[in-house]
Amino acid sequence: MGDKAVFLDRDGIINELVYYPEQGIVDSPFTPEQLRLTPSAVEAVNRFHGLGFKVIVISNQPGMAKGHFDEPTFDLIRTRMRESLRKGNAYLDDEYYCFHHPNGVREKYRVVCDCRKPRPGLILRAAKDHGITLAESFFVGDGIVDVKAGREAGCKTVLVASANGLLLKLLKEQDAEPNYLVKTLEEATRTVEKFAEPHRTKRIREKLTGSNSASRRIDPHA
Ligand SMILES: [Mg+2]
Ligand SMILES: [Zn+2]
């Protein structure tokens, strides 16, 4: 069996979304200066690592196709993200990005691809590269596309969003109901922790008794 991972969406989970008043939209940071970590990003990444998960970013960045930023600027944004995490002794095992958009202005990225969420291409690639067992893994994101991609790849899904009637209706209509719906990343972290802890408890008990005869795998869904 391979490793397990927590796949994290980036915008809205690791870093704050940016408001662009001229266009009246909320979008990804387009410059390194705009990148700010969310309040519990560092703690979440560290706790996932503490639970034995790899932590891998899976993110759509169609701003590349749309001409909002170019490759060198995007590298600076990534550097700023990694450096901000490092200040809290947090790190990412890997990052996977889709730069495509079917209506992009840059021809190179104007394609219908299999890596843009809700498609699971990036997750499948990451699982292959890192020897990840997807059924033991989580996808944590703040969008419906995150739930869809995570489900399609065979992960357990955690959606970070406020559960209003409209959202619940949308999730149902789009057949995109997550395994867990939580309000904050902090709550998502506790959810993954609760799930992962039985395994940990089991290992500790095996260590104490020197045998595994008394223990069996605890399925939190049972
Ligand atoms: Mg997001
Ligand atoms: Zn793509």
How would you characterize this protein structure?
- This protein is α/β, with parallel strands linked by helices.
- It has a single domain (4-185), classed as Rossmann fold (3-Layer(aba) Sandwich).
- Helices cover 38% and strands 16% of the residues.
- The chain has seven helices and eight strands; from the N terminus they run βββαβααβαβαβαβα.
- Strands 5-4-1-6-7-8 form a six-stranded parallel beta sheet, sandwiched between helices. It has a two-stranded antiparallel sheet with strand order 2-3.
- It starts with a strand and ends in a 13-residue tail after the last helix.
- Mean pLDDT is 91; it is low at 211-220.
- The structure holds magnesium ion and zinc ion.
- Magnesium ion binds next to loops.
From the 3D structure, determine the CATH topology.
Answer: Rossmann fold
Give the strand order, joined by hyphens, for the main sheet. 5-4-1-6-7-8
User: What structural category do the secondary elements indicate?
Assistant: alpha/beta
What is the mean predicted local confidence, pLDDT? 91
